[in-house]
Amino acid sequence: MLKYIYPFITIFFLFNSSWLHSQQFSSEQIKKQIELYKQDPRGPYNRIRWFCKDGTIREPKDPCPDSIGGGVQHASYKTDVIKLGERNHIYLGEILTPTDKSEFWDEKNNHSRIKQYQLNQYLASIDDGWVLQKAQYYRGAVQSEDEQAWGLEFYNWLLKNNEALGKYYFLIRQSLKDIPHDGDDNLAQLMRSQSKTIADEFPEFMDVRIKIHGKPDRTDITLVKNFQKEHNEDLTPELKKQFDRLDNTLQKFYAPINFEKLKNQARQISETNDITKNVLTFLNEYNNSDSPDIIVPALAELLYDIRNNITSLKKGKDKLLLLDLSNEFENILLRKTQEWKTATVNDALYKICNLSYAAAGTGLIESWEWNKIKPSLTNPLGKDEAQLSELNDFLSTSRSIIEWSAATVKANYEDVVNAYVQFEPKSYGFIDDRVRSTVALDLGETVNKLGSFISEQSSLKNNVMNISSQSTIRGLNPGYAYGELVVVKGNPENTEVDNNKIYIFQRPPSDLKPVAGIMTVAEGNLVSHVQLLARNLGIPNAALSDDNLKSLEKYNGKKVFYAVSDKGNVVLKSESDMSDAEKDLFTVKEAQKNMVEVPVNQIRLDVNEILNMRNVGADDSGKLCGPKAANLGELKAMFPNHVVEGLVIPFGIFRKHMDQDMPGKNMSYWTFLNATFTEADKMRKNNIKEKEIENFQLRKLETLRNAIIQMPLEKEFINQLKDKFKSVFGNSIGKVPVFLRSDTNMEDLKEFTGAGLNLTLFNIVSEDDIINGIKRVWASPYTERSFKWRQKYLLNPENVFPSILIIPSVDVEYSGVMITKGINIGTDNDLTVAFSRGAGGAVDGQAAETWLVTENSSLLLAPARQPDYIRLPLEGGTTKKRATFETSILNKKNIADLRSIAQTIRLTLPQKTHSDYKGAYDVELGFKDDKIWLFQIRPFVENKRAKSSEYLSSISPSANNNKTISLKNRI
């Protein structure tokens, strides 16, 4: 008896000690709690009770009488499980029967509880019940028939109106695979989890497990049986049972399709309309013997029809039946597409087009997205031959479908997975499992096969450590690097990076410090701050697939050479395989090239008055203030109705404050700064290692930064600031929400952009926040990240002066960046635009909606997959909102307005600024009520050395894009 009592006592003391009253339980505490539940025969549950309709609770042998409405029997939760839900919003071992439907849908928390339920089911399937490891045998804790009944009630409630289906079609369809409501199991997931469990216990099974996870088909039944027979003597009795269970799952999954059962299910739909007729027509016309190239296109069309017409049904019950049929049809499609072998180019094109259609039908991509890319996928079909350029366009689009599909899964589940990974690392596999259970799996295989063929025809070959599926890797920024390879599998935000290493990320971190090279699964967007910094520093950057990342994990910690050509092919090889020419790229002489000096000969430090932005122009950049304020003042003159009013705190005010005595140092702030760099120069002359010098400077700059934040501001300056708020913004300080933007003289040099390096404060209102914010912005150039980027490029980083641009907040509905040229594809006359919902969009590595806009057309390069965004309330601060993707961010009018304003900028800005600059511009802007608001403009800087490097030219293939290829060629 003591062995059953002990875990509960341990949990009691674990969660009832002095820190019990803290706001949230730590990840370590939750981890310990889970381990105890695994060993507890009751798991997270307390006792079984009858829960009556009148609110009373009865003992197990005293059921609720019919006279009070009856009731249900199930387990109650342990007290600490309830507290975990209340404090951390973490729900373990959730029983559906007593759960409030709206709380389970959990809309205010981005549907966290329904996602957690799915994740719990996944963890239970791969970890022998997970928190229910022993409690699986706690009889009566969960009543399956009551759970089924609750599931039916939940979906009937949820599907009454069409709003949820419109916004959350993918999530709802996925949840049906996990929430009991019809007696069916999620066989595809069960098949993968059972094979994983066997491989974990019996490593020899790993090759079979990889086959089941990566390229499943009917032959897996024989494969598993033969393996079991071959290794029978080595298998324990428990492993033999696990093999039997896996065999049973495989037999069910690959059993002949029961069309009669599906017809009966379809006939239960009470309403007859076009979509229900289409379902019955399909079931009557097709059968299990139809060849896959016939039935898969029919299924893809049917899935798409169901998605777009399900809202024509009035009853929640009917919609649920149709959604269940949609999931059944997807299962049939997944099995049939595994049988569809593509022998020729035409076969592959046709299959890819139809699987992409199915991706739209199952919610992996949105209907509007499918309509945008459909012409690119249907164009080559039915032809005998096509030009190489057409096939490359097709390949690019089909790769995008895979990326968008994977991004949909991540956007839906990443928040919950990231929360659980902190205390249960196995959670990380959930997203991968979900992606593999969709059409994206076989679509990726077919696209990769086509990509290999087109690469051969284009002479475009990647050389990446001899891994498989290299056609999914594509270069983004040209450049080359040598250093240690670091593969970061999880959330990158807390990763400490080294500027001499090459990093592979799932997604780029929002505040990336300098690195030697980057590869990312989720590239963010082409014009994020990270991408722009990488681009102008010549840091090689490429996109790759999840599978590529996994294949490269074994090279983590190895020294490698990495290069991306301007045509987009990628080289990644071990140090020992480097050629003499590649080794010569990393001499000291090469490293010193392209260092630039911040010009200070014209700086005006005598101007100590706050300026009206209307009185500042481009000629003042680097003299009175940085380019943000100078260029925005110019834009205000050019587009007075599209630019807010503004105040500029010039360099001179910062410099005057820096002449004050620095507390405890017997010198001014300015003297302390210069003494730091003087000492660093002495250390270099004494041959002290550069890393030690850098650490010395960072320690000193941290001291300076903290002192500036505490620096007293002159009374005269504060009074002037208050007066300017009234005269320029029309209201007192403390009543106008504003942005404070750092604007240094180091930004937008011809060879360097400081995009995103220094501080911007969003939507602050109170006088104290504004006063303190000014000092924080002044201090921001001395952060580690800002300093390291400057050190990489600037010869005189000590001569960085911050000015500050103060502008009223505009609560834009969506915002982003426009580059007045095509990036990677397109011409210098095109536009690349990237937008996200809310404020601050597209600049921090978000999965933004990106377009190539030409004179007469607009090409969708990527849809938004950023699951959240911020708005700017009048009372200040920010509010976080949740995004859905059923409509595009930019509309036709927006795109037309962007064309128009870009044309004006191209023609007018060089004249207004008396500049001979002929390059592209980088414009930050937003839309509110379909009106453009311009927030910043700067030259778009690319690294010319990387683009013109002889070595990079030598690895760039020359392909004849007009080459004609027969679509009957075998692949």
UniProtKB/TrEMBL annotation:
SUPFAM superfamilies: Glutathione synthetase ATP-binding domain-like. This is Phosphoenolpyruvate synthase. GO terms for molecular function: ATP binding; metal ion binding; pyruvate, water dikinase activity. Its EC number is 2.7.9.2. It comes from the Bacteria. Catalyzes the phosphorylation of pyruvate to phosphoenolpyruvate. It is an enzyme of class 2 (transferase). Pathway: Carbohydrate biosynthesis; gluconeogenesis. Its cofactor is Mg(2+). The keyword Metal-binding applies. Coiled coil: none annotated. Keywords: ATP-binding, Kinase, Magnesium, Metal-binding, Nucleotide-binding, Transferase. It catalyses: pyruvate + ATP + H2O = phosphoenolpyruvate + AMP + phosphate + 2 H(+).
